[in-house]
Amino acid sequence: MITIDEIQSFCLKKEKTTQEFPFDESTLVYKVLGKIFALCPLEAWEQVNPSVTLKCDPDYAEELRHTHDTIQPGFHSNKKHWNTIYLNNCGFNPEFLLELIDHSYDMVVQNMPKKLSSQLKQNDPKI
């Protein structure tokens, strides 16, 4: 199973990503240019019930929920656009979770105004 440290390292390698605690002292939030793409409830991790909440394309979110029992509508978030992935006995490898984190990051960037997303190198035609 993936660790919270591995999630943290993966998220922080993404361009213009910050980690914050905007809601409380136990919900670790990852943002790209101020927009949330991942939430990790640290108390749940400490209680050995790890999860991560990620943004997702609505159709893909439904597909994932039907395919994996451990992927549920986002806890305390818009159920159409967010999934919570419960990692105990999830049945998939860590690489799949990293793909879902990538998808979440990409979804957030795609929905940003161009003025904001233009700050990212991936959108720079020179690179």
Order of strands across the biggest sheet? 1-2-3-4-6-5
Task: Tell me the fraction of residues in β-strands, as a range.
Answer: 15-25%
Task: Summarize model confidence as the mean pLDDT.
Answer: 92
Put simply, the count of helices is 5
Structural class: alpha+beta
Task: Provide the CATH topology.
Answer: Aspartate Aminotransferase, domain 1
Dominant shape: globular
SSE ordering = HEEEHEHEEHH
Q: Which CATH top level class fits?
A: Alpha Beta
> Whole-number radius of gyration?
14 Å
- Identify the CATH architecture: Alpha-Beta Complex
Question: What features would you describe in this structure?
Answer:
The chain is globular, with a radius of gyration of 14 Å. A hairpin with a 2-residue loop joins strand 2 and strand 3 (about 35-40). The chain contains 5 helices and 6 strands. It has helices spanning about 5-10, 40-45, 60-65, 95-110, 115; strands at about 15-20, 25-30, 35-40, 50-55, 70-75, 80-85. The chain has one domain: Alpha-Beta Complex (Aspartate Aminotransferase, domain 1). The chain is about 35% helix and about 25% strand.
Give a short overview.
By secondary structure, this protein is an alpha+beta fold. It contains five helices and six strands, in the order αβββαβαββαα. It has one domain: Aspartate Aminotransferase, domain 1 (Alpha-Beta Complex), CATH 3.90.1150.30.
